Amino acid sequence: MRHYENFPVASILCPAALRPPIAAIYWFARTADDIADEGTDPPAQRLADLAAFRADLVATAAGKPASTRWPKVFGPLQVAIKQWRLPKALLDDLLSAFTQDIIKTRDKAGYADRADLLAYCQRSAAPVGRLLLHLYGVKDAASLQRSDAICNALQLINFWQDLSLDLPRGRFYLPQDRSQRHGVDEAALHAQPQSPALTRLMEENVAWARDLMRSGAPLVHRVPGRAGWELRLVVQGGLRILDKIEALGCATRHQRPTVSARDVPLMLWRALWM
């Protein structure tokens, strides 16, 4: 979820008591994501910074002072961990995924198949949903699985949406077995326009993400109060991006579709009828 742009940060639908811990989780994830993705630092420096970030997490979770590098992250996070007993393992999973983002570039192995890619999403996206459910006191297995489906679908949607951004960075999130089956070569994508083979592959990927999102959608009836309505809009926002990818002929290799204010009435209408 690049920059966690679909993350519900302290919105008007969020209960006031939960806004500080949600914001703390957001800034933890956002800062770590930026360490991995933004700026011009070489990979070795990014890995060193993430290691220092992880050390601050360990100290914070233990109730000890963190370093002075990220006070706006670990000060609020320490309060949230203490007050809400946030599971540290979920925060660790996020850092593991961001570290993998740095290591797993074009000169390394990509993602062999859908299961391999979902295993990454389970650390890069699913922890966010599970942390939010923890705050709302929703802990049953069915809800956790549906949360994973929604968050992993959002991550996949970001991948299909951001093809034009990820390829220049050496990030190739298209499952290799499906790519090979359709005759899509990663190297050729850098020089060629949208090919029929890539279009067919992306159509398949869009359908996969949509099915995954729909499988998690019943969670909106389990999350209490206004948060359930916010989750409806998160789900509809992801589905709307998939609509826009299809409207482009799945040509996100050269264009990045986004949701705008003009899409909000349709999303609200669809959310109402979920």
From TrEMBL:
Pfam families: SQS_PSY (PF00494). SUPFAM superfamilies: Terpenoid synthases. It comes from Rhodoferax ferrireducens. CDD domains: Trans_IPPS_HH. InterPro entries: HSQ_synthase_HpnC, Isoprenoid_synthase_dom_sf, Squ/phyt_synthse, Trans_IPPS_bact-type, Trans_IPPS_HH. NCBIfam families: HpnC. This is Squalene synthase HpnC.
